[in-house]
Amino acid sequence: MVDVFIGFGSNQGDSMRICRGALEEIGRHPLVRVTRVSSFYRTKPVGPVRQDWFVNGVVRCGTSLSPEELYALTSGIERVFGRRREVPWGPRTLDLDILSYGEVSVDLSWLKIPHPRLHERLFVLVPLVEIASDWVHPERKVSAKQLLDALRDEDHDQQVEPMEAP
Fold first, then answer.
1. Is 14 noted as a catalytic residue in this protein?
2. Where do the domains of the chain lie?
3. Exposed, middle or buried, 78 (CB in 10 Å: 0-12/13-18/19+)?
4. Residue 47 half-sphere exposure, CB side, CA atoms within 13 Å?
């Protein structure tokens, strides 16, 4: 089993229910074992599109799926919850991002692992540090905690507020 982290988020519909449902769907797959789920966080959207705040978090799993199979699973779950990719960086019912897949790096046109912007996003790093502060980025060779500390030291407009445990 490979240790993987998946970021989840929603800002349309009943975001708490959608995120909980997505976590249940991930855990139902026979080749995926959910081992840890972060608290849920209310987060200010990042990017150029005006939209409602998100509910975000991170789930840690063990899987024997390949990165491509895991992507197919997460994309399918997004579709089950009504995800449409109409506006880049726009509102969404569900967003599932593979943040890391063991020590593996993937660089395909449609899939990049580790996630290419995870080190720039408080809404990823805060819940990641909550459940795995010692996780080490396979390319940057620094821990999640070090990435979070570095990002907090920068001048930015990101906001992350704790909500509740899943």
1. no
2. 2-164
3. buried
4. 15
pLDDT number for residue 83: 72
Distances (CA, A) of 163 to 21, 45, 47, 127: 17, 16, 22, 11
Residue 92 among the catalytic residues: yes
**In which element (H, E) is residue 90 found?**
none
Q: Is the pLDDT of residue 89 over 80?
A: no
Structure tokens at 26: 């991930």
Instruction: Determine the Cα–Cα distance for residues 93 and 148; give it in Å rounded to an integer.
Output: 26
Alpha-carbon span 114 to 101, nearest angstrom: 7
> Which stretches of the chain are DSSP H helices?
15-28, 67-80, 122-132, 144-153
Q: What pLDDT digit, counting tens, does each position of 41-67 carry?
A: 999 998 777 889 999 999 999 999 999
Asked about 97 being catalytic, the answer comes back as yes
Annotated active-site residue in 42, 95, 134, 153: 95
Top-tier CATH class for 2-164: alpha beta
